[in-house]
Amino acid sequence: MDDSYRAFQRKTLNAALIGLTALAGLFLAADGLNLNHLGTVQLQATAVFILLNLTLLVFNRDPRRYIIVAGAALLISFALITSALLFVPGDELRLVWYFMAISGSYLLLGRVTGMVLTVATVATVLVANPGLPVPFSRLAMTTITLSLVSSSVFFFAFTTYAGSLYRRLQESNSNLVQLSMCDALTRLPNRRLLVERLQRAVVDGRRSGRIGALMFLDLDRFKEINDTLGHDVGDLLLIEVSRRLQSCVRETDTVARMGGDEFIVLLPSLASQADAALLTAKKVGAKILETLNEPYELGAHRCLSTPSIGLTVFAGDAQDVEAIFKRADTAMYQAKGAGRNSVRTLVDETTTQAGNP
């Protein structure tokens, strides 16, 4: 069960509990004003119903108890409706409440529960009817039974369609989120998602005292490959570069595409000391350099591509993320200026001081 749908069910159950409690309170008030006599048994049952509903409202604050609370709510409601059937013969429309319970069971606990409650309702009415002070006629019982079954069939179909529609909406929403957060070609996180993760890494670093690193990568002479071999081959190169980059880092790290031939590697929580974090990041950078220097088999073409990599580290008290990006970007241009196919480091002095005593 999807968490968002479960949250919707919990809110619906809370609304139902509040509504039914208020309605039961009105019945008690009407009895006290001699507007609608319930009888001693039903009066006590209604008072107990209110107390139990209020108790369930408190228990439903814990999402883990939802199934138990929803099941208890349906059983309590079914018991109250059945007591009205048995002890309030003057209420000709008391069976209407069964229809509400059946619809609620489908919505709150699904189709299996709805079908079970339908069978239980029909069986209860059929068994209890001969002993009622004013039994329903055979024709009325036929109408009641068919109505209960028809209602159940309707809500079965309704919840089936609604569930299917909900799943499609969730899939569409997931696709939209992916499009807004991921690069369409490589399926890597885009700048928006990367910024969120970098901000989280800075916050986590502030709490843990550990230092992370950021690498800015630019593919050397990518435009030449794109122009001479075609954009399709260029796209294949970008896809293969993204795959190789992901093979060089941990699952907790992030490889993102900024656009064009620019990539970012985020390495959060490397070490508690700046020197150790920088050393680890340099080892990852060297591994990336070696991996991306391997020849590429791109369809019918075999080519070479090298990266220029700019590296920086950041602590929990680092400047804003744009400052971290700028340092890594500047270091990358230093790598290009030094002849490409290399790693250059630019470290903020405050980060070094934050990580080392």
Number of domains: 2
Percent of residues in β-strands = 5-15%
Radius of gyration: 33 Å
Oligomeric organization of the protein chains: single chain
Residues in helices, as a percent range: 55-70%
Strand order of the largest sheet: 2-3-1-6-7
Structural class: alpha+beta
In DSSP terms (H or I, runs of 4 or more residues), the helix count works out at 12
Short description:
With 357 residues, the protein is α+β, with helices and mostly antiparallel strands. The chain is 66% helix and 12% strand.
Question: How does this structure look, described?
Answer:
This protein has twelve helices and seven strands. The chain has helices spanning 3-32, 40-59, 66-87, 96-109, 111-128, 138-181, 191-208, 222-229, 231-247, 274-292, 321-337, 349-355; strands at residues 211-219, 254-259, 262-271, 296-298, 301-303, 307-314, 343-345. A five-stranded mixed beta sheet has the order 2-3-1-6-7, sandwiched between helices. β4 and β5 (301-303) form a beta hairpin. α1 packs antiparallel against α2, α2 runs antiparallel to α3 (66-87) and α3 packs antiparallel against α4.
Topology:
Blueprint: H1 3-32, H2 40-59, H3 66-87, H4 96-109, H5 111-128, H6 138-181, H7 191-208, E1 211-219, H8 222-229, H9 231-247, E2 254-259, E3 262-271, H10 274-292, E4 296-298, E5 301-303, E6 307-314, H11 321-337, E7 343-345, H12 349-355
Parallel strand pairs: 6-7
Antiparallel strand pairs: 1-3, 1-6, 2-3, 4-5
Helix pairs in contact: 1-2, 2-3, 3-4, 3-5, 4-5, 4-6, 5-6, 8-9
